[in-house]
Write a structure and sequence with these properties.
Distance between the termini: 19 Å
Number of domains: 1
Number of strands: 7
Number of helices: 9
CATH architecture: 3-Layer(aba) Sandwich
Structural class: alpha/beta
Strand content: 5-15%
Radius of gyration: 17 Å
Length: 194
């Protein structure tokens, strides 16, 4: 099975690329979706409560706004949270990959390079867009303020560093049709059809 990692900073358009790949019949596993599921597990919630404080857990799951306020200002708290969530996400992603059919599986992992996971993939794709475009997308999509955007952006490796590490770059600077052409270019380069 060929394993392809997809990454990109906040607002770059990873979800749009994943959607294009799915419409072309590829399996795409989304680490953010898996993280949402594992972070509602009672054992995960207990561990977060014990490590960071009970105020970060509600009866419905993680108190995401309060938790985000903490971890994007406190590197140790972010490391602690990631130490709880990330191993569970990796285990679940591995299980889902084992269940996948087809010769190729894509994995959408926002922190692919930050966590040193690129070596486990046959190739990596960086979805990239200008910072102003990404900020505007995030404001419209999530309602985050510029300060909240920058807190998340600064917690990730810079796009410049990711460009050097990525095998392929998908530029998401125009229309959905242009993005689809970019994805098809990469698929052809990966010998996965066009």
């Amino acid at each position: 099975m060929k394993r392809i990692g997809i990454t990109g900073n906040i607002g770059s358009g990873k979800s749009a690329v994943s959607s294009i790949l799915r419409t072309r019949g590829f399996t795409v596993l989304d680490a953010d979706e898996v993280a949402l599921r594992v972070s509602s597990d009672p054992l995960t919630l207990l561990e977060v409560s014990e490590a960071l404080g009970p105020q970060y857990v509600t009866e419905r799951g993680l108190n995401r706004p309060l938790l985000a306020e903490l971890v994007f200002k406190n590197a140790l708290a972010l490391e602690t949270l990631n130490g709880i969530i990330h191993p569970r996400v990796r285990a679940q992603m591995s299980r889902l990959e084992g269940e996948a059919t087809g010769a190729t599986v894509f994995q959408d992992i926002p922190l692919l390079f930050e966590n040193g996971l690129e070596h486990g993939f046959n190739a990596t794709i960086l979805v990239d867009a200008p910072i102003k475009t990404r900020l505007e997308r995030v404001r419209k999509r999530s309602g985050l303020t510029a300060e909240q955007f920058w807190a998340r952006e600064n917690a990730q490796m810079s796009p410049q560093q990711k460009r050097v590490r990525a095998d392929w770059i998908v530029k998401n600077t125009g229309t959905l049709e242009q993005l689809e052409r970019e994805v098809l270019r990469v698929l052809e380069g990966l010998d996965l059809g066009g």
